[in-house]
Structure formats: structure tokens, C-alpha cells
Design goal:
- By secondary structure, this protein is of the alpha+beta class.
- It has three domains: 106 residues, Helix Hairpins; 79 residues, HSP40/DNAj peptide-binding domain (Sandwich), CATH 2.60.260.20; 91 residues, Sandwich (HSP40/DNAj peptide-binding domain).
- It has a four-stranded mixed beta sheet with strand order 10-11-15-14. Strands 1-9-8 form a three-stranded mixed beta sheet.
- β10 and β11 form a beta hairpin.
- The protein starts with 9 loop residues before the first helix and ends with a helix.
- The structure holds zinc ion (ZN) (2 copies).
- One zinc ion binds next to loops.
């Protein structure tokens, strides 16, 4: 149904009564259409407008289903069918002018152009704010996503499928089965509230029959079971900046729910998880790596080659006498931070103890051990332990 249907009196347009028969409608329509036909009235804009009005009116009234929908919708309005408060389930006064039913249809419809169903859907989801024509900002949404270590390093654009509340697409949010419309709740007369007397006071309660909606659905929509609520999903392409850290919450401005009546879209917040890498780690904007070295490389000094996060490798000079656990810094091979500066690659060397030695290797090591037999690397421990005890 078009949104402006309710503002138009199609019966008056055709000059018939509300209970006019199909034949009567057809007769009137033919007469009026012939009189105002553009071919017969060249250049007459008023006649053309009348011709369109008459055609629209007949289009609706000649279709029994449309006519029924139109009649019921008009009846709701004529009876002040949408009084304050009840629709969002929030209850309370307010809503559409607190009981004065001089409602501008345009207000109620907002920008929705889908018809009566959309209009109801809008009401149900709108809470108590139905009167407002103010632009409304879209909802903020939150989503989660897991990135590979490399994608987190370099940044990536990820398609995110977002679901949000929307009027049920089958019934357009009315909650009523296709081809039917809700009627004014007979229990509360459409107010959405009933009152209960207790100790001389009257308490307003949400109407139990319609749960405060003010409308009663005889034949519920099978898709949403009468709730009128559904889900809409869409895909948003989220640009994740380079260097994102595990656990960060990224704000994507304007990627949230769409605004209403020209309002801006909400924001999308994406919580990012970053998978561990097989060899690299992260420490802020620095990338960490543990590189095994042999005892002889540590003792005698050497040059070792290690990979960097982006595929190239670098050569590190290990000075003679390097202890296990020493950290070497490769400048600029880390993550680019928000300030545009690159972090570093931090390489921790770890002296690997040989697990399997052949006889020759063991003999050579034994020879070395004999040569250093007089040195006690733990003498400081004994000395300091003795001092603190005595
Ligand atoms: Zn009710
Ligand atoms: Zn539905």
C-alpha cells in the first residue's frame, strides 16, 4: 500500500459511498476516466491530475484485497487507532500527542515508502518516539573478527556480514499473516493499557491481550510468529588498519545501522582477534622472534640469518661471548604504528644444547671440558649465599 493512501479518500474521488458495489465503482470510474482522459483534454493539467486520481482510486477499490486493507487502515485512523504509548512496548503516556489524534500521516510514515505494513513496522520498532520527524542517527553495531598474524601486520579489508533487527519481511512488521491486517485490540481499545484497582488506586498496566501494542493480530504471520520482528543482514567491507593488535576495538565510522529520515549512519565497532604466528610474536609495535644458536656460535661469535615478518631475511652479527637470552634489535622491521613509525624486530638468541652427539663430537667437548675444569661458574652463588647466611 502506498504511504499516501490513508490521506486520500478514494470513495470521494470516485463520488461513491463506502459500501458501493463493484459494478457501481466500475460505472463511476468509466464515466470519470472518459471525462478526464488526457486524449480528450489536451494540455489540461487539472484534468490529467483528476484522471490519475480516479485511476489510482479505482485501482485500489476494484481489488477486493486492497480495498479491504485500505478500509481497515482508514478505520484505524478515523477511530484514533494509534493512541499514545503502547507500540514500543514501553507504555506510558506520550506517543502521538498524548491522546489527541490530530496525527499527520506524513509524520507517522516518516520516510518509509513501502506502505502500511512498513508503517506499522516502523511504529513497533520506534518505542515512544513516533511523533518525531527529526533525523535519527543509525544504531551503533558491534562485530568480531579473527585475523591472521600477517593480515594484522599489513592491514586488510574484510567483508563482514552484519545482522540487525528489522521489521519481518514477510508481514512488513505487522505481525499479521499475509493479506490480513491487525485490528484494534478490543481489550484495551487500542490504548495498550489496562487499569487495575488496588486499594483505591488505579494502576495502569500493559494490556495482557496485546502486550501493550494496542493492536491485535487474529492470524499471526507464520514467519515471525506474530512478533513483527525480523532480521536483515548486509555485508560491510571493513578496512582494518595495518598493525592492529589482538583485542583492539576498531571504530568504523558510518558503517553501523542506517540513519532514519536523513540522519547519519551509526558506527560499527569491530573487536579484532589476531591468530598466533608459528614463529613471530608481537610486543606492541615490535615483532619478536626467538632464534636458536649453537654453543660455539655464542662463544666464538658468528653471523646468523633470520627471517623477518614480511618475507625477507636479515643477517645478524653475533659477537663472541654472547649469552643465551640476549636480544638483538633489527630496526624498522616491526609493525607500522599509528604515528607512522615502524617498530623493530627483536631477536632473542637461545643457546641450543646438542641432544645427540657422535663420538668425535663428544671427545672434542670432553677435551674442552677438561681444559675449563678449574673454572666454577657458580662460585659467586656460593659466595653470596654464604654471606647472606652468615
Ligand atoms: Zn490490548
Ligand atoms: Zn512476520
Amino acid at each position: 500500500m502506498n504511504k499516501d493512501w490513508l490521506e486520500k479518500d478514494f470513495y470521494a474521488t470516485l463520488g461513491v459511498s463506502k459500501d458501493a458495489s463493484a459494478d457501481e465503482l466500475k460505472k463511476k470510474y468509466r464515466t470519470l476516466a472518459r471525462e478526464n482522459h488526457p486524449d480528450k483534454n489536451p494540455g489540461d493539467a487539472a484534468a490529467e491530475a483528476r484522471f490519475k486520481d480516479v485511476s489510482e482510486a479505482y485501482d485500489v477499490l476494484s481489488d477486493p484485497a486492497k480495498r479491504k486493507e485500505y478500509d481497515e487502515a482508514r478505520a484505524l485512523f478515523a477511530g484514533g487507532g494509534f493512541p499514545g504509548g503502547g507500540f514500543g512496548g514501553a507504555g506510558g503516556p506520550g506517543g502521538f500527542g498524548g491522546g489527541q489524534y490530530n496525527v499527520n500521516v506524513e509524520d507517522l510514515f516518516g520516510d518509509s515508502s513501502g506502505g502500511f505494513g512498513d508503517f506499522l513496522g516502523g511504529l513497533f520498532n520506534r518505542g515512544s518516539g513516533g511523533r518525531s520527524r527529526q533525523p535519527r542517527r543509525g544504531q551503533d553495531l558491534e562485530s568480531e573478527l579473527t585475523l591472521s598474524f600477517d593480515d594484522a601486520l599489513d592491514g586488510v579489508t574484510v567483508p563482514l556480514r552484519l545482522s540487525s533487527d528489522a521489521p519481518c519481511s514477510v508481514c512488513n512488521g505487522t505481525g499479521a499473516k499475509a493479506g490480513t491486517v491487525p485490528r484494534v485490540c478490543p481489550t484495551c481499545d487500542g490504548t495498550g493499557q489496562t487499569s487495575r484497582n488496588a486499594g483505591g488506586f488505579a494502576f495502569a498496566e500493559p494490556c495482557p491481550s496485546c502486550r501493550g501494542r494496542g493492536l491485535f493480530v487474529d492470524d499471526p504471520c507464520t514467519s515471525c510468529r506474530g512478533s513483527g520482528r525480523g532480521v536483515s543482514s548486509r555485508t560491510v567491507h571493513a578496512r582494518i588498519p595495518e598493525g592492529v593488535k589482538d583485542g583492539s576495538r576498531i571504530r568504523l565510522k558510518g558503517k553501523g545501522g542506517p540513519g532514519e529520515r536523513g540522519g547519519p549512519a551509526g558506527d560499527l565497532f569491530v573487536v579484532v582477534h589476531v591468530d598466533d604466528h608459528a614463529i613471530f610474536g608481537r610486543k606492541g609495535n615490535n615483532v619478536t622472534l626467538t632464534a636458536p644458536i649453537t654453543f660455539s656460535e655464542a662463544a666464538l661469535g658468528s653471523q646468523i640469518t633470520v627471517p623477518t615478518p614480511r618475507g625477507n631475511s636479515v643477517t645478524l652479527k653475533i659477537p663472541a661471548g654472547t649469552s643465551t637470552g640476549r636480544v638483538f634489535r633489527v630496526r624498522g622491521k616491526g609493525v607500522r604504528g599509528k604515528d607512522g613509525k615502524n617498530g623493530d624486530l627483536l631477536v632473542t638468541v637461545n643457546v641450543a644444547v646438542p641432544q645427540n652427539m657422535n663420538d668425535e663430537q663428544r671427545d672434542a667437548l670432553q677435551t674442552y671440558a677438561d681444559l675449563v675444569a678449574g673454572e666454577d661458574p657458580r662460585k659467586d652463588l656460593s659466595a653470596l649465599a654464604g654471606n647472606s647466611n652468615g
